[in-house]
Design brief:
Blueprint (H helix, E strand, L loop, with lengths): L1 H4 L4 E9 L3 H11 L2 E4 L13 H23 L18 H41 L4 H10 L21 E8 L1 H15 L3 E7 L4 E2 L6 E2 L2 E8 L1 H13 L3 E3 L5 H57 L3 E2 L5 E9 L3 H11 L8 E5 L16 H10 L10 H15 L3 H16 L4 H4 L4 H8 L1 H18 L16 H8 L3 H6 L31 H34 L3 H32 L11 H10 L13 H51 L2 H7 L3 H6 L11 H25 L2 H25 L5 H43 L21
Antiparallel strand pairs: 1-10, 1-11, 2-10, 3-7, 3-8, 4-7, 5-6, 9-10
Length: about 850
């Protein structure tokens, strides 16, 4: 709990790593995750560091692994996670891993290339067979043209040199994609002016695409033409449309013979392709065995070399010098790990603590339960080193403030059961491996949801609300029978007054307060909302002032720990007097009125609000009687005392720091004068004897000089803090009224949903069968809207408001959040 209350002590350590054992030492530190290395070569570019060649080699291996991984995924295979804990391989194994990986990758490229080539060749053969197998009948069309022209534009008298029977008919056959067929046919007709006959037919069966592997439909075509120029145009057009062109013989018997040869070649090629794919599966099997372990080892090796690049080299080049942050309690484990890793080198690695003026990183260890609460605090800002951590108190206050706005037994129970199911299933691998982002968010905050639901059940019992309905756990403290017996209500009076008033002054009407929570009779009262508004508004103010006062109180631990005793008297004490003198007094008035005002005097009870306004105006109201004797004097005294704390807050700390700075300056000047007189009285012989000159004595060490104090900055910073605190006490107290507003909104939404859905469904059917049929869809709609509106939307709204109350109203009283996390060098995420 000490580590949770405040960050652990973190020390700056210097490591002397022998060159021969540096790799193994850093590798062991990566397995343990103890040290966050500092970059001692910040001025050196990444390309000029010592181990840049090894880093590049690891990056090349990662590229090869990426290629192999994509090939495995392309084949539809799954990579199994590596078995056991794999250490970083020694440097001498890097070349072996690289050779084995490159050989396997090259073999896979060759096999994959052969497979692609065979698939493309088989695809061409099948297309050619389909073109030859389709009965387009172009020879008959060509023969018809040979017998005589039939076009109207054909001249009746043959041209000199012979008839059309002397022209030779040629053919172009191939296949084209279906969406290009219409455009190809149209362009051929327009370009060749009709001097061709084209036949397009869709293939009966689909062919597998050699690249994507998906089935695709093709259109086969056969074009008959005469004339060399027409043929050239046809070939250019088909090339533009990326058509597959195949030889097409005029004789049908010759085409049949070619078709048989193509079918035989396809069968032989299919057998070769099956053998190639069988060999490819064997290569991929070897990749599956090598890849999981190889990826982890190369990533670890690269991380080790990157860490070694942050080390500096000693002047003798016999060891590497590293610096890093390490938790003080882990220093013995660090020293033991270095000794174990460097034992084989013959020279032991050494780690020792060194002083440092830089602010150390913050280390707060968490577990499954506290991680989500610490995440809420860190989202505002990581705490400074050794600053009070708000997370332990957030474990209680955050779910409670959420439950104040979300109080309902039914809704809280649903949230609690949902979180409990996640907690019980947290060790199942399938639950952890879920990739849904929304599920990961809920699963990460499962313990937070568990407490939020549990506290909502508690506040739901206080509000006496379960799905907006009151429950009678204990007998009511109000008696209607006693009121009816002693008031003389007649039938005429009851018919004229639909709303009846219960007078607690009549004996037997009010028997006493309800044992726990709000009396269920209030759910039937017409002034139910007014009563709850008054109760929840005052409760919100009490909780808000208590929460803020606790935050100011926690600042005491910061001032004591950092040795700033002056801030206890000049900041914390005035802040407490200002806050409690004004708003703490308001809480006192609320509680005092609850305890002192009885039922008989409730009608003439004074107004707290008027008293509080008169307190600031230094006014007196004759109609508003005081709650206790001497109230006016007490109020005036508290206001004057609170106002007197403002100049103390504004000027106290800067004046104290200015006085301390002047004292220190005078002390330093006095010591310098004494040193100067001593040097003037000393002889030259003593100077030569010591070997030091007066200039060297005067130089001193620049690291021993104190940081320069700027008075204007101190006054400005304190003025901002004073204004923020004084105005924040007012605005933050009003901000806690969101507890009342959100609680009221949640209760009213729940009541509206019950009245407009479930109550309507329950009143629709009186018979058992009808009611059962009606209630099924009604309850389904009620359940869906309850989860969607009241649990998800209202729950998210209450969560965000509780988050704001902690960040702005609570944490700014004592928590700066200007630090940075300790990020140790570890292999955990890589595994």
């Amino acid at each position: 709990m000490g580590s949770m209350f405040r960050s652990e002590e973190v020390a700056l350590v210097q490591l002397f790593l022998p060159t021969a054992a540096a790799y193994s030492c850093v590798s062991q530190l990566g397995e343990l995750g103890l040290v966050e290395f500092r970059d001692l070569n910040a001025s050196v570019s990444a390309f000029q560091r010592r181990f840049v060649v090894d880093v590049r080699r690891c990056e090349e291996l990662e590229k090869t692994f990426t290629f192999l991984q994509e090939e495995v995924r392309r084949a539809g295979l799954v990579l199994s996670p590596p078995e056991g804990k794999l250490p970083a391989p020694p440097p001498r194994d890097l070349l072996r891993i690289q050779e084995e990986t490159d050989r396997l990758a090259q073999e896979l490229r060759d096999v994959r290339g052969n497979q692609q080539a065979l698939r493309a060749q088989l695809h061409q053969l099948r297309l050619h067979s389909a073109v030859l197998g389709q009965s387009h009948g172009p020879p008959m069309a060509a023969a018809a043209y040979a017998e005589g022209p039939s076009s109207e534009r054909t001249p009746l008298i043959s041209a000199p040199g012979g008839s059309h029977t002397d022209l030779k008919v040629n053919f172009v056959a191939g296949a084209v994609e279906p969406h290009k067929a219409a455009a190809l046919e149209r362009l051929l007709w327009r370009a060749c002016r009709g001097f061709l006959i084209a036949s397009f037919r869709e293939m009966e069966s689909q062919l597998e695409d050699p690249v994507t592997g998906e089935p695709a439909t093709w259109m086969t075509f056969v074009i008959s033409y005469w004339g060399e120029q027409i043929g050239q145009k046809i070939r250019k057009i088909t090339d533009c449309f990326h058509c597959h062109i195949f030889p097409y013989l005029e004789q049908e018997q010759a085409r049949h013979g070619v078709l048989q040869q193509l079918q035989q070649q396809s069968q032989e090629l299919q057998e070769v392709l099956e053998e190639t794919e069988r060999f490819l599966s064997q290569v991929l099997g070897r990749v599956q065995q090598l890849l999981p372990s190889g990826q982890v080892q190369v990533r670890k090796m690269k991380a080790v070399y990157l860490a070694l690049n942050q080390c500096s080299v000693s002047t003798t080049h016999k060891c590497l010098i590293a610096e890093g942050w390490c938790a003080a309690c882990d220093l013995p484990a660090l020293q033991q790990a270095l000794q174990d890793s460097s034992s084989e080198a013959g020279v032991s690695a050494v780690a020792h603590r060194i002083p440092c003026r830089d602010m150390p990183p913050t280390l707060i260890r968490t577990n499954r339960f506290t991680a989500s609460f610490q995440g809420i605090v860190d989202a505002y800002g990581v705490g400074r080193y050794q600053e009070v951590n708000p997370a332990p108190y957030t474990i209680i206050t955050f779910p409670f403030l959420f439950a104040v706005m979300f109080g309902d037994v039914g809704h809280g129970l649903l949230m609690f059961l949902f979180a409990l199911a996640m907690v019980l299933m947290e060790n199942r691998p399938a639950v952890k491996a879920a990739q849904n982002e929304i599920w990961q968010t809920f699963f990460g905050g499962r313990y937070l949801l568990l407490l939020m639901g549990l506290f909502s059940i508690y506040t739901g019992f206080i509000y006496n609300e379960c799905f907006s309905c009151a429950t009678t756990i204990f007998p009511s403290g109000w008696s209607v029978a006693a009121m009816a017996n002693q008031s003389g209500w007649s039938d005429k009076y009851l018919s004229q007054h639909p709303v009846l008033t219960l007078d607690p002054n009549i004996p037997g009407v009010f028997l006493g307060p309800y044992p726990f929570g709000i009396d269920p009779v209030w759910s039937l009262a017409s002034n139910h909302l007014s009563f709850l508004n008054s109760f929840k508004m005052k409760m919100s103010v009490i909780l808000g002032v208590t929460h803020m006062a606790f935050g100011v109180f926690l600042s005491i631990f910061n001032h004591v720990h950092f040795g700033q005793a002056h801030r206890l008297l000049l900041e914390t004490l005035p802040e407490l007097i200002f806050l409690l003198g004004l708003f703490g007094y308001l809480v006192f008035l609320v509680v005092y009125k609850w305890l002192q005002v009885s039922v008989s005097s409730a009608a003439s009870a004074p107004s707290i609000l008027i008293h509080f306004i008169n307190m600031f105006l230094f006014a007196h109201s004759s109609t508003n009687l005081p709650l206790f004797p001497g109230q006016e004097v007490t109020q005036y005294t508290l206001v004057v005392l609170a106002l007197a704390m403002v100049p103390v807050l504004l000027l106290g700390t800067p004046l104290y720091l200015l006085r301390q700075h002047r004292r220190l300056t005078a002390r330093v000047a006095c010591s310098q004068d004494e040193n100067k007189d001593r040097l003037l009285d000393s002889s030259d012989a003593s100077i030569s004897e010591n070997g030091w000159s007066p200039d060297e004595e005067k130089a001193g060490c620049p690291g021993d000089e104190e940081a320069e104090f700027v008075a204007s900055e101190a006054f400005m910073h304190q003025a901002i803090h004073t204004i923020e605190f004084c105005l924040g006490c007012i605005s933050n107290t009003a901000s806690y009224l969101r507890l009342w507003a959100l609680s009221l909104a949640h209760a009213q939404l729940s009541e509206v949903l019950w009245a407009m859905v479930m109550r309507v469904g329950l009143s629709m059917g009186r018979e058992v069968g009808v009611a059962a049929v009606v209630l099924v869809p009604v309850f389904a709609a009620f359940a869906v809207m309850t989860v969607a509106i009241l649990l998800v939307m209202e729950g998210l709204s209450a969560f965000l408001h509780a988050l704001r109350l902690h960040w702005v109203e609570f944490q700014n009283k004592f928590y700066l959040g200007t630090g940075y996390k300790l990020s140790p060098f570890t292999f955990t995420t890589d595994d």
